[in-house]
């Protein structure tokens, strides 16, 4: 089922909410889900319906509100979980049950205390049960990146036969390395006889800071769904960040060869909403959505950007929802940026000497202040004129 369309599955409301301290109310989840729908996210994982009455109510409310994205609920490979997920999704225009069981030796032995054969049986049963409730079932092999290849082939083939149309391979503990993780997808897709009947999906955690790199590598090896969160929120060090994946796919279409349907102009407002609802601020140097992501301070960069934006910009700030890019005036700024700012403020100089004098005063001030604002520039010109 390979195509050039990449499905964006957002799990901010489920895995994102698993960030310690990031829990959200039903109303907050519905608000975020509406933004995700505007972003044109394909699948919104709204929660884990059996986890609590509140989570059930949230999944139900999101399912009843959102019409343009598929709404998904997580469920362990346990009857009660699957039934509860199905119940929460009844009002959805398009609903998906996402059921999972761990497949790595360490999880099967210590956590599940089950034999591999029992895990396969449980997975088949779960997928069949979910398929009786909804037409769209995703199956995850939890801890796939630490699972044995032959066992994964066996369970994937069985759950596709049982009716799963998406096979998700999570790097649950963020252990994967891009080359190895991508090749795992390529080998599985080539080895499982009925792989063409399903979409393969990557779900990466960021314990080693590799979640986005691992997801992109999976895409280059055949994954056609990526699971991610706004601002990279998620369990422990978080999940792959939606904004980074979407913009990497778009900016490097030349090598990625896939497209999403995301309307990126809603990225920054969605990031802000998630940050304010969860109380998790976005670091200034965070890619795409950090306050400095499109801000230039060095004189060389500012001069380049003023001559041609693409000298130092690979994306347009406006395309991801910023008002504009930003030339920050500070001690590294050069004459070109300072002059451009004076021009924008309508301040002109009668001679080159007067401009040189203003620039010298600017540099003195910049040594004392992190950032020079428009009011500082105006005051500086008035002081220069008073002193003249
Ligand atoms: O990280 C993980 O393995 C998960 C699964 C439940 C998909 O979040
Ligand atoms: Zn996860």
Explain what you see.
This protein has an 8-stranded parallel beta barrel with strand order 1-2-3-4-5-6-7-8, surrounded by 9 helices. Strands 9-10 form a two-stranded parallel ribbon. The protein has helices spanning 26-39, 53-65, 79-88, 105-112, 116-131, 149-162, 178-191, 211-220, 242-251, 253-256, 267-278, 299-307, 335-344, 352-366, 374-387, and strands spanning 7-10, 43-47, 70-76, 95-102, 136-142, 166-171, 199-204, 225-228, 295-296, 326-327. Helix 12 packs across helix 13 (335-344) and helix 14 packs across helix 15 (374-387). It starts with 6 loop residues before the first strand and ends with a helix. It is built from 15 helices and 10 strands. Helices cover 45% and strands 13% of the residues. By secondary structure, the protein is an alpha/beta fold. Zinc ion (ZN) binds at residues 15, 170, 172, 203, 205, 235.
Q: What ions, cofactors and ligands are bound?
A: 3-methyl-2-oxobutanoic acid, zinc ion
Give the overall silhouette: elongated
- Gyration radius, in Å: 25 Å
Q: SSE order, as H and E?
A: EHEHEHEHHEHEHEHEHHHEHEHHH
Quick one: biggest sheet?
A: 8 strands, parallel, barrel
Low-confidence stretches: none
Give a brief outline of the structure.
Catalyzes the condensation of the acetyl group of acetyl-CoA with 3-methyl-2-oxobutanoate (2-ketoisovalerate) to form 3-carboxy-3-hydroxy-4-methylpentanoate (2-isopropylmalate). Its EC number is 2.3.3.13. With about 400 residues, the protein is an alpha/beta fold.
């Amino acid at each position: 089922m390979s195509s050039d369309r990449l499905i964006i599955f957002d799990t901010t409301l489920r895995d994102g909410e698993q960030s310690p301290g990031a829990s959200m109310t039903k109303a907050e989840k519905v608000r975020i889900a509406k933004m995700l729908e505007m972003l044109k996210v394909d699948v919104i994982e709204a929660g884990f319906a059996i986890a609590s009455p509140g989570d059930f109510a949230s999944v139900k409310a999101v399912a009843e509100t959102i019409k343009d994205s598929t709404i998904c609920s997580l469920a362990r490979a346990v009857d009660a979980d699957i039934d509860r997920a199905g119940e929460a999704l009844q009002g959805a225009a398009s609903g998906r049950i996402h059921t999972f069981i761990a497949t790595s030796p360490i999880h099967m032995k210590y956590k599940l205390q089950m034999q591999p054969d029992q895990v396969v049986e449980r997975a088949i049963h779960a997928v069949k049960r979910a398929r009786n409730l909804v037409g769209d079932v995703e199956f995850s092999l939890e801890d796939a990146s630490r699972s044995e290849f032959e066992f994964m082939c066996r369970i994937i083939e069985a759950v596709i036969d049982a009716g799963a149309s998406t096979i998700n391979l999570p790097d649950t503990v963020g252990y994967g390395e891009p080359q190895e993780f991508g090749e795992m997808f390529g080998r599985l897709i080539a080895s499982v006889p009925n792989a063409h009947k399903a979409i393969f999906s990557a779900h990466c955690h960021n314990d080693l800071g590799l979640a986005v790199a691992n997801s992109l590598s999976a895409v280059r090896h055949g994954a056609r769904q990526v699971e991610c969160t706004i601002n990279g929120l998620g369990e422990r060090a978080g999940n792959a960040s939606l904004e980074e994946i979407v913009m990497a796919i778009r900016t490097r279409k030349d090598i990625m060869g896939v497209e999403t349907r995301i309307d990126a102009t809603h990225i920054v407002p969605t990031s802000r909403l998630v940050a304010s609802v969860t109380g998790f601020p976005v670091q200034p140097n965070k890619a795409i959505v950090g306050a400095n992501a499109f801000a230039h301070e060095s004189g060389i960069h500012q001069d380049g950007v003023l001559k041609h934006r693409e000298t130092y910009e690979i994306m347009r700030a406006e395309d991801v929802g910023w008002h504009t890019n930003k030339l920050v005036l500070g001690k590294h700024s050069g004459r070109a940026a300072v002059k451009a700012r004076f021009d924008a403020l309508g301040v002109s100089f009668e001679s080159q000497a007067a401009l040189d004098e203003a620039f010298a005063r600017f540099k003195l001030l910049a040594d004392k202040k992190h950032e020079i604002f428009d009011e500082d520039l105006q005051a500086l010109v008035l002081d220069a004129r008073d002193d003249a």
